[in-house]
């Protein structure tokens, strides 16, 4: 089973979780973070980039796959004083714990 989880990390602005939002089932939230953007799970189609973009508008990639299935979107507000590196390492460990594969990571 392949899963794709897209997370956006924003600087702290002091908000509470978005009304009606909830974390992905079984996934531990980064301590102190808050949900500021959420789209509930629904069946949809998504282009998964497997390389850096070759064009920005419209987005195009030299390697990508089109997938369909249950798609959810989560945007978390990171707690003050945390670095992007620290948060991403935390989520990599969480993905490992859940048995999820990272199929592309921009470096």
Overall description:
The chain contains one helix and five strands, in the order E-E-E-E-E-H. With 107 residues, the chain is mainly beta. It has one domain. The strands form two sheets. The protein has a three-stranded mixed β-sheet, with no helix packed on it. Strands 3-4 form a two-stranded antiparallel sheet. Strand 3 and strand 4 form a beta hairpin. The longest helix has 15 residues. The radius of gyration is 15 Å and the shape is globular.
Q: What keywords describe this structure?
A:
single chain, 107 residues, mainly beta, three-stranded mixed sheet, two-stranded antiparallel ribbon, 1 helix, globular
Q: How is the largest sheet built, in terms of strand order?
A: 1-5-2
Helix content: 10-25%
End-to-end separation in angstroms reads 25 Å
Strand percentage lies at 35-45%
| H/I helix tally | 1
- Summarize the biggest pleated sheet: 3 strands, mixed
Compressed to H and E, one letter per element, the order equals EEEEEH
Radius of gyration over all CA atoms, rounded: 15 Å
Q: Which term fits the overall shape?
A: globular
The helix/strand class is mainly beta
Compact summary:
The chain has 107 residues and is mainly beta.
